[in-house]
Amino acid sequence: MNGQMMQLPLLISSLLMHAERHHGEQEIVSRRVEGDIHRCTYREMAARARRMANALARLGVSAGGRVATLAWNGYRHMELYYAVSGSGAVLHTLNPRLHPDQLVYIADHAEDGVLFFDLTFLPLVAAVAPRTRSVRHWVAMTDRAHLPADAAKIPNLLVYEDLVDAENDRFTWPEFDENTASSLCYTSGTTGNPKGVLYSHRSTVLHSYAAALPDALNCSATDVILPVVPMFHVNAWGLPYVGCLTGAKLVYPGAGLDGKSLYELFESEKVTVSAGVPTVWQGLLAYVDANQLRFSTMKRTVIGGSACPPAMLRAFGERHGVHVLHAWGMTEMSPLGTACTFKPKHLAASEEERYAVMAKQGRAIYGVDMKAVDAAGNELAFGSPEQGELLVRGPWVLEHYFKDEGGNPLVKDAAGHDWFPTGDVVTIDADGYMQITDRSKDVIKSGGEWIGSIDLENIAMAHPAVAMAACIAAPHPKWDERPLLVVMKKPGAELGKEELLAFYEGKIAKWWTPDDVVFVDAIPLGATGKMQKNKLRELFKGYVLPTA
Ligand code: ADP
């Protein structure tokens, strides 16, 4: 017997319609590429999204057609999130930090028909445009008055505000199956070609519900949310959807991701919640500390994408009264998998214990099931000290990559259930808190035993002279591999190898101590702000470790 409730498909357009009707007056604030601060309401944004939906139809974008963006976080990008997906097409967010060769590959692979770009990326578009086969229309996300003269070199160039101005805002969002594709995001492809992850309306709406929950990103109508995490990186972790769902005020930073620009926006717009990768927060903390500033409204920030060093948790908590919510996810998971929120017993725990919990990646959010398995695929019980690979399943977890690239990525358990292998090496404690020790490709294996590179990096990062640290495996004649620590010092800081290695004493098992330290001017970062350990491994391929 079926239930007797309404069958309404979970569509992204329903988030926008909810926002317009129920908190239409709420503000969306954006720092624009044009240099000013732009303000609009959800109601105005929704009307412009409908105009853009009309414009897309006029450009010949049909159901399932791919529309790409190369853009910062801002209201026009948000309009496209809704206009493209809402009209049944697929929004493909491109990462402008990728190499032009990769962008050409991805745009053609996705068969993007229209590409919208912020003016910052005009040189990039000029380099890519003559080489892509699929893109028919290039749209500069500005108005005609701000269009630079050299934009003329882009063929068939259109201007965003011209498109919006030419349409009226009468448009009825179509209804279709909730499993229809809504948006597309490629993994950064540290090995091999980037692979596309194609989200659906259903997966996106369910993920938005879950993301907003108190024990996930904890967002409500009274919050002011500033997503630092880019809208080109896994849909800014769902925050542009969470805004419509909750009625929170949204503040978009545009291209201003340095400490000073972010701090000023946090203060002027009274931001309460933010979210981003650790490298961004480092810049912000350095600026705030150097200028002895305080956050007057910020209550918490979500940190994920790479491990949040415990020193950063404490810097935010102890010096600034900002609670860090450590979260973990993947492009293949829309992205949220775990969030590190407390259980009741932690409320009475000591500060030390609470910080130890907060350093973990956290507990599974309902909608994501997870387990760690050993090399033979057997599940490790929660509380087992053994580390294993993390497997996940759920309605917003990838089933297969776009165009079936790479074949079937899933593994089956004895009950016949499919699981997605994350490539992360983890432990899960008795309370269900997952902690990542490594990505499987970054693991250091010394004499057959794993050494957790993230632990070693976290300790180095707690040293006041260290700006960034990466620990990689270096070949060793006796132990196969031993840890080599690559360190970027803070500007002007004094630090020697001996002093840094002494800093490890008592903090880890002695045999985990790195065999050597090299100081470098910069650690290579990937397109999503993560340390590129594969590049470092390449750089130090022939490195000879000192032998005792
Ligand atoms: P990629 O870096 O492969 O392009 P993602 O941005 O999807 O793709 O990154 C997912 C990976 O990032 C995870 O599998 C994990 O290794 C790492 N990651 C994400 N969040 C965290 C975190 N809080 N702590 C440690 N690692 C994390």
Question: Could you explain how this protein is built, in words?
Answer:
The chain contains 16 helices and 27 strands. By secondary structure, the protein is of the alpha/beta class. Among the domains are: 12-200, ANL, N-terminal domain (Rossmann fold); 444-539, GMP Synthetase, Chain A, domain 3 (2-Layer Sandwich), CATH 3.30.300.30. A 9-stranded mixed sheet has the order 2-1-11-10-12-13-14-15-16, with helices on both faces. The longest helix is centred in the N-terminal third of the chain and has 17 residues, at 42-58. The mean pLDDT is 95. The structure holds adenosine-5'-diphosphate. Adenosine-5'-diphosphate binds at residues 187-188, 304-307, 326, 328-331, 335, 361, 422-424, 436, 439, 528, 530.
In short, what is this structure?
With 548 residues, the protein is α/β, with parallel strands linked by helices.
Q: In the CATH scheme, what's the topology name of one domain?
A: Rossmann fold
**Helical residues, percent:** 25-40%
Largest sheet: 9 strands, mixed
C-alpha geometry:
globular
| CATH classification, class level of one domain | Alpha Beta
Bound small-molecule species: adenosine-5'-diphosphate
pLDDT averaged residue by residue: 95
- What structural category arises from helix and sheet content? alpha/beta
Task: Work out the number of β strands.
Answer: 27
CATH architecture of one domain: 3-Layer(aba) Sandwich
Contiguous helical run count: 16
What fraction of the residues are assigned to beta strands by DSSP? Answer: 15-25%
Evaluate the radius of gyration. 24 Å
Amino-to-carboxy terminus distance: 73 Å
Q: What spatial order of strands do you see in the largest sheet?
A: 2-1-11-10-12-13-14-15-16
Spans where pLDDT lies below 50 across 5 or more residues: none
Output the CATH homologous superfamily of one domain. Answer: ANL, N-terminal domain
